[in-house]
Amino acid sequence: MNELEDFLKIHNAGTILDIACGSGGFTNRLTEALKSYTSVIGLDIKADARDDFLESVKGHNISFVASTIHDYLTSASHFDTISVSNALHHLEGVAEVIKKVSGILNDRGTLIINEMHCDDLTPPQQTQHDQHKLIADLHRATGEYHRETWSRSEILGFVYGAGLKVQYTFENKNEDAEITKEPTKMIERARSAVEKTYPDGAPDTVTKELERLAIRGEEIGSSAPPQLTLVCVEA
């Protein structure tokens, strides 16, 4: 198998929980490619994601729950397939969260982790990484948990620490991803986060880092990060 879709098209997913589903981009990728599934719950801390999620995810028996993952896990049902995409770096205490998530998998259940990582970056990917790190630092300053991206070994460590094993690994290095030198959504998000975090003016260190990243984006460009996808089962 070379891609996640190769696995999905032979996978009978049963009941699905998609953690930190947002507007449903990854959820839709699942429902469109899976061989079969019974139902899907999208879970996200942001209640205002509900309408976009329910509108964008195509399929049957689709529902949305607004909750933190920590609150949800205290009374969650069990699922046949659980997924989390590009959200591990948003989950405080992620190692413990993955352990608890593995505990609500049904027998022979599957956990799909799809996460960007920080290893072997091209120069434009390094731009994206540094822009993302600045945003994460600013979010933490306002009380929102958000950290820079994990390494491959750290992500694998969460899996093994939860008593799971990796059944399939899919890599997308994104080395040929489009490079943009125009002001990106990431740098605009960074500017917005600076204004929100420091309404009376940001410290020089923050202003200089924002300027550095804007110049780097114009000179080197920014591109999508590498992605690691792990299909995990009970060890």
Description:
With 235 residues, this protein is an alpha/beta fold. It has nine helices and seven strands, in the order H-E-H-E-H-E-H-E-H-E-H-H-E-H-H-E. The chain has helices at residues 4-8, 25-33, 50-56, 69-73, 94-103, 123-141, 152-161, 185-197, 204-219; strands spanning 15-19, 39-44, 62-66, 79-85, 105-116, 164-172, 227-234. Helix 3 links the parallel strand 2 and strand 3. Helix 5 packs across helix 7 (152-161), helix 6 (123-141) runs parallel beside helix 8 and helix 6 (123-141) packs antiparallel against helix 9 (204-219). It is globular. The mean pLDDT is 95.
Low-confidence stretches: none
How many helices? The count is: 9
Structural class: alpha/beta
The portion of residues forming beta strands comes to 15-25%
Chain-averaged pLDDT: 95
Largest sheet, spatial ordering of strands: 3-2-1-4-5-7-6
Overall, the morphology is: globular
